[in-house]
Design goal:
Rhodanese-like_dom; 5-stranded parallel sheet; disordered N terminus; OB fold (Dihydrolipoamide Acetyltransferase, E2P)
Length: about 425
Amino acid sequence: MLKHSLIITSLLFAPMSLMAEEVVGKVQSISTNAKVIQYLNPKTKEVTVIKFTDQTKLVDAESFKDLTVNTKFKATIDENGVATKIKRVLVKLPAEQVIDTDTLSELLDEGEPVFIGDARPLNVYNVGHIPTSKATPSNKLKENLNWLPKDKDALIVFYCGGVTCPLSPAALKIAMANGYTNVKAYVEGFPAWKGEVYPAHVNADWVKKNLDKHHVILDVRANPAMSVKGAVTLPSEELSAMHEKMNKEKVPTNKRTIFNLRDKKAPIIIVANTADADEAIEAYEVLTFWKFKNVVILKEGMEGWAAAKLPEDKVATELVYEKKLAKGAVEESVFVKAAKEGTAMIIDVRDAGEVNHGAVKGSVNIPLGELDQNLAKIPKDKLVILHCVGGARASLGYTLLTKKGYTNVKFLNDTFADVAKDNGIELM
């Protein structure tokens, strides 16, 4: 008893620096160069960052490349905010309750009767989902069992956001508890589906609500007279020709674009006569190969759109698109003015080797991994703008500084080299 008490006492009075902390989060972004992860705490909804090193132990992950966006993890953090261990929280279900990507694809190709339920929140389902799937958010399924087939023996497949997402297993358990006998979870989920370049669809009612400058409506038919309101034309035949030409010229895929569209995360909705038209599939595959992250095909195509009497207009030949600013992102014009006139402190969070290829005159280079060690160099009484190559590390730096009490900080969420070139910013 005495020995037990002494152990408890030693723990109670141990210095905090000797006590490790455990955190649970969902990856929002990661920089393997700077060894920093930005994550969301699912309970508190707070966004913060942690560091890792080459010595950080990975569990249930082969490399840090497995820590993709929305990956759920548990991490042990030392007194310096550095992760000593990171474990992916993988979904674990009996083998008979799991279906893989190829099997699900074959079921759809062969027209087999299968009900596919998207267990993600409705706002996530709306921006892109597996063809034929229905929105069945797991947190509302118990009260809405009418979403499911009446036949309790029908094959039902639920999916969500990948191997660490708990939503499809949760939906599976609800269905089974209510008498459904043939329920499976597509654990690999939507990321794997997109990763295999299988088509993703979007419903017409959602598109109707988002006919604005922040979305690209791309009509890939040959010589369309009318299309979805706001659509721009680029026939799939022309797109394929561009693809072949760039292949011969060995243009890097991340440098390939349409209409000089720099934003690889731009929501692109492909329009053809039908969702399974060759033009739609071909354009989807090319743009996905070109590293556009959010490409989808309009469900039921232009035929369905016209039949529903939804807004139409003549197609445009020039794209009008404006990237929707993320929280903390700076307007391009503000960054350009700061670069040319010195109206803000610009911090370049790239590594020294990257900076040697060209930097804004007067900018300060503080690599992201060293940012928290150089706070004395960063003022709190003037606007501070962070930039990197494409915005990912700058976003992490923004989060880090706001957690340190900085209130007048922004980041460039764009391709730095292109912004500089397009606006005549002289690089040193």
